[in-house]
Write a structure and sequence with these properties.
467 residues, alpha/beta, ten-stranded mixed sheet, four-stranded antiparallel sheet, 22 strands
Length: 467
């Protein structure tokens, strides 16, 4: 015998959302529903208007026994058969202490199902009840997506959507919700190597979202991650993104989400007085660089008779992503790092111990400080990200390592000194950080990152996936 469900879908949704929780609905056959719960952080924030979503359910409506489909059909309101039906339940909440007005929506709110086609949408459990009708009037369906109207929502108002699909029914995290609401300040901290690109992204994002302020506060990868970790532990309301050169240690990143942004190529630099007649990059081998940083080369003339008879002076980084990449991929074997050597000068001018036979080595706290110091210190050698080194001007020479430069083609050919820039942010509770990272990794920012000297991961996924 055949049974046509029709509007029974609405009753199904109401049953699933009853105060008793998720229940099995028996229709001669059992319709098992598996709830995959994805709950956003509900922390209130006065700094930003927040429209939060919770995917409460995204599940196939399977039939038991398997051949029940021969006698049971699920139809939509137009009496058309729904193949491979699934049900999603999404709650939308104004989770801020302020009203969200029509003027606050910077982009439409879109709920997308990559593997399903939307057939019907009902609004239920609206608070206040009158809100349900207002939302229902403006909802649009665009193939695999539900588009919400930009309605005024008072603080705390909420509603649920019952979405019936053909196909779909994967994990809750497969549901993609996008949109943009005004307001808030975001701090982008961490890697100084990526600071220039971050500042450029700050300017373009602030134009894109005029009510959001982005403050770039470069320090180093480790400090940026520690500040973010401490903020998460303290339940800080600050919106923060930490930029890190390379993947961070998992011991630091509890409670964080991560996204690969771009390739960061580094280069070794030397003071121009080392090779006054140079017309291009200085050619050094990995073996020579390891000897220099291992303290086994006293003067530049010992390395190459064409070089000046100046003592070798190393200007390195303190704890940073740049240093980690240098010690792992240049001094080390790519897996096991090798130390750059002990610091012997605290002021980057004089050796700490007069008459010491150790190689001069001082540390600076940022990329800019390394480049500035190396340009003014006769006989200096250091390292920095390649785009910033190129902008440093004619007082420094770059190094072709084993005959290779730092371009993308050379990286593909085996140039070792590079890493991937990663963005870290609070997982599941910082929509402004997510908006910024989405913008930074979007197609529109690919040319900007490329022009800044940082090939985007969105266009170089294979390389980015290797580090």
């Amino acid at each position: 015998m055949a049974a046509v469900f029709g509007d029974l879908f609405t009753e199904l949704g109401r049953s699933l959302l009853s105060s008793s929780g998720l229940v099995f609905l028996v229709l001669g056959v059992v319709v098992p529903v598996v709830a995959n719960v994805y709950i956003r952080n509900r922390e209130k924030s006065r700094q930003r208007k927040k429209l939060l979503y919770n995917v409460l359910l995204n599940s196939r409506l399977g039939l038991d026994p398997p051949d029940a489909g021969d006698v049971v059909r699920l139809n939509d309101r137009n009496d058309k058969l729904i193949d491979n039906p699934s049900l999603a339940v999404v709650r939308i909440t104004n989770d801020s202490d302020s009203d969200i007005t029509e003027a606050d929506y910077r982009a439409e709110t879109r709920i997308q199902f990559p593997d399903g086609a939307v057939r019907t949408v009902d609004v239920t459990d609206a608070h206040p009840a009158e809100l349900g009708e207002l939302i229902s009037e403006g909802i649009r369906i665009d193939r695999d997506a539900v588009i919400l109207p930009s309605r005024h929502l008072n603080a705390g108002e909420r509603f649920k959507l019952l979405i019936l699909l053909s196909g779909g029914g994967g994990r809750a995290e497969d549901v993609k919700v996008t949109g943009l609401i005004r307001g808030g300040e975001l701090v982008v901290a961490g890697s100084s190597a990526f600071a220039t690109a971050a500042a450029q992204a700050d300017g373009s994002y602030s134009t894109y979202c005029r009510s959001a302020t982005v403050r770039v506060a470069p320090s180093n990868s480790q400090q940026g991650l520690l500040d973010l970790r401490d903020g998460i532990a303290a339940k800080s309301k600050e919106h923060r993104v930490a930029m890190a050169d390379g993947l961070a240690d998992p011991s630091v990143t509890a409670g964080m989400a991560e996204r690969a942004i771009a390739i960061v190529a580094y280069t070794i630099v030397v003071n121009r007085k080392v090779f006054p007649g140079a017309t291009g990059p200085v050619r050094l081998t990995t073996t020579q660089v390891r000897a220099i940083f291992g303290g086994r080369q006293r003067t530049w003339r010992d390395i190459d008779p064409r070089f000046a008879a100046l003592p070798v002076k190393i200007v390195a980084r303190g704890q940073s992503g740049s240093r980690n990449a240098f010690e792992r991929y240049v001094l080390g074997d790519g897996t096991k790092p090798s130390s750059q050597g002990p610091r012997t000068s605290t002021n980057c001018v004089d050796q700490d111990y007069a008459g010491s036979d150790q190689t001069f080595l001082c540390e600076e706290s940022s990329t800019g400080a390394v480049l500035d110091r190396a340009s003014r210190l006769d006989g200096a050698i250091g390292y920095a990200d390649a785009p910033d080194a190129a902008r440093a001007g004619g007082t420094l020479l770059t190094v072709a390592l084993d005959g290779r430069g730092s371009g993308l083609v050379d990286i593909g050919g085996g140039y070792p000194f590079w890493t991937v820039e990663h963005a870290y942010f609070r997982a599941g509770g910082d929509p402004l950080a997510v908006d910024f990272v989405d913008y930074l990794t979007g197609r529109t920012q690919e040319p900007a990152l490329q022009n800044a000297g940082y090939p985007p991961c969105s266009a170089n996924q294979q390389l980015c996936g290797s580090r």
